[in-house]
């Protein structure tokens, strides 16, 4: 099995049970080993009192992309901690894109950076997540 096929099958298994991302309106666009791209269009229920995208929605988008990137090796990985910096607001009707890249994977620990951009390409947020693999896989691989 190629690493690309492993990433795709891991993502399919995760997506099947990911009610939270679907509920928020997040879409999985692309996955590869250590990489994921997801989108979310800012809807009315995503707006805060300033009529811009709530930071929790942006965080959820980045966190989902992080999860798909660090779980792309068919090893279950969970978040240890993560941080986000908001750079510009998401606007109503705008499609936000989160692009996650695993930058380090040492033993059971990983670091993944996520850049969230707006429809015009500007940076909306920068997210860094630390992951830890635990026991289990997303699907059974044949030997």
From TrEMBL:
<dbReference type="InterPro" id="IPR011973">
    <property type="entry name" value="PaaD"/>
</dbReference>
<dbReference type="GO" id="GO:0016289">
    <property type="term" value="F:acyl-CoA hydrolase activity"/>
</dbReference>
<dbReference type="InterPro" id="IPR052723">
    <property type="entry name" value="Acyl-CoA_thioesterase_PaaI"/>
</dbReference>
<dbReference type="InterPro" id="IPR029069">
    <property type="entry name" value="HotDog_dom_sf"/>
</dbReference>
<dbReference type="InterPro" id="IPR006683">
    <property type="entry name" value="Thioestr_dom"/>
</dbReference>
<feature type="domain" description="Thioesterase">
    <location>
        <begin position="52"/>
        <end position="124"/>
    </location>
</feature>
<dbReference type="InterPro" id="IPR003736">
    <property type="entry name" value="PAAI_dom"/>
</dbReference>
<keyword id="KW-0378">Hydrolase</keyword>
<comment type="similarity">
    <text>Belongs to the thioesterase PaaI family.</text>
</comment>
<dbReference type="Pfam" id="PF03061">
    <property type="entry name" value="4HBT"/>
</dbReference>
<protein>
    <submittedName>
        <fullName>Hydroxyphenylacetyl-CoA thioesterase PaaI</fullName>
    </submittedName>
</protein>
């Amino acid at each position: 099995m190629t690493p690309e096929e492993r990433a795709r099958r891991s993502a399919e298994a995760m997506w099947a049970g990911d009610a939270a991302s679907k509920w928020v309106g997040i879409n999985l666009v692309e996955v590869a080993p250590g990489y994921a791209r997801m989108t979310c269009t800012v809807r009315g229920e995503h707006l805060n009192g300033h009529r811009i995208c709530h930071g929790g929605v942006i965080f959820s988008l980045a966190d989902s992309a992080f999860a798909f990137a660090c779980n792309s090796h068919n090893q279950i990985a969970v978040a240890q901690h993560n941080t986000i910096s908001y750079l510009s607001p998401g606007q109503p009707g705008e499609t936000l894109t989160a692009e996650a890249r695993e930058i380090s994977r040492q033993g059971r620990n990983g670091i993944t950076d996520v850049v969230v951009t707006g429809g015009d390409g500007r940076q909306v947020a920068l997210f860094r997540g630390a992951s830890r693999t635990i026991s289990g896989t997303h699907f059974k691989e044949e030997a």
